[in-house]
Design a protein that fits this description.
single chain, 243 residues, 9 helices
Length: 243
Amino acid sequence: MTRSTSTFQLSHVRQIKAGITALDDLSLEIPPGQITALIGPSGAGKSALLRLLNRLDDPTAGEIRYRGQPIVDIPVRTLRCRVGFVFQNPVAFPGTVRDNLALAASIAEVPADEIDGRITRSARLADVDGELLDRPADRLSGGQLQRVNIARALTTGPETLLMDEPTASLDPETADTIGHTIACLSSQHGLTVVMASHRIAEAKELAGYAVMLDKGAVVEAGPASDLFQSSHPRLRAFLSGVG
């Protein structure tokens, strides 16, 4: 079998939930080693797409491949260690920040004698201040907690990180610093990032590749520098509407 040059390949994917079509005959390839931004209006299918990529949901029809392998052939636990997920609203599990990261390490079956090192590394990569590791996770600010959520996802040792509006609930300054962290994870550490974003300036700044979705279908996809200059009428109307 020829090795895939894409991180994800989606072929004629349809997703219907509660009678509503979230994705409609969607075919798409997502490149490796860079940040891909998913943009589009509310309800376009961005979150629905991300949820399929580490099997929080399964498609109603169509096929998804991860690095050339049918995603359904990868054990779910293995897939979710390889493909991490950072949600829009950060969640703290009971205990300290260290406890939160240790939980992720245990899920990934990190050997006991390597857990401390894994926690230290993932905290550093996510710019989590070392002084926070022994603080109760539910006493952190929104920005601190989102960094912990990123670190928790990194603790499993993923190759790919899915992020659903990771800066949406943060103030602009904090969002910018989180954006810088995301950029470093991709450019300096080779992590593939697929990120839904409603902040067009953020998508323009961070993404090497971009996909616009509308009504569950791909409007346009390609290098971000090309896509944001595209004359496609639906894309121009969307960008004009969001400023």
